[in-house]
């Protein structure tokens, strides 16, 4: 089908058909701690299927059997899970999955080039994932638009209207020879946005995405931005995240008003053999009727859940144990991709 010219990138809190994940297996980077990380995937599957369907990509029949065995008897509604067999390099579907634009006339699966976060990791199979899902018949009559420009879903936030939020650090790393003006134009054109808001500050030690926005600041309903703060002056993140908070306070809505800001608490440092891991509460996932919040076994977990819940009134807050995920430098939002209502066949 031909995509409508009235496309937009929906906000995550709009109605969804399903959430998309890929199951970890011994051929992925999770191999060393596979049993541990599967506990998070089972908890995630249980949480999602309480509210809506879950599509699970599996590498082969054996991986599917392993996934079904892990899920069976854990309270997961297997009737709400659909398995799709496709090859993949790893399981970070926020960055390799489809960025879906919507309009009254239909959908466009916007398929940006995935380079393994600027060439850090091999990504040929992940780069072909959207095309594989289209061929597998997962989606209805949606246009498939390949964009030969590197961008990951975790690198952008949409308010569902005309505004995209992103970080200079990430996009400059992906496109060091392009100006901000050039990248701004590409984002506006490919995402059908009227304006792009850029953050120049903010990072998390241990994050190899080069400061994806979904680890730092998230749009929420009612012109709100939920963001990761740091209230410990002795922490090396403090100055940078304070500068980011000041940038957020200076942003304005399309109507010229300041955004309503919701700072998230700062977890204590989590180390793995001396390496600090990137634990961010901003990496939550919104689904139909609920918001799934990462928990790290930290004293700040419950306060983070309270802040996020207040930003999404009327939704149930479900904490998902995500400490195993940050060993590989990502969290809850990073391993998922929501699919807008009406897209899935």
Automatic annotation (TrEMBL):
Pfam families reported in the protein's UniProt record: PAD_porph
Taxonomic superkingdom: Bacteria
TM helices/strands, residue ranges: none
Keyword RNA-binding: no
The species this protein was found in: Fulvimonas yonginensis
Protein's UniProt keywords contain Chaperone: no
Keywords: Hydrolase
Annotated InterPro entries: Peptidyl-Arg-deiminase_porph (IPR007466)
Name of the protein in its database record: Agmatine deiminase family protein
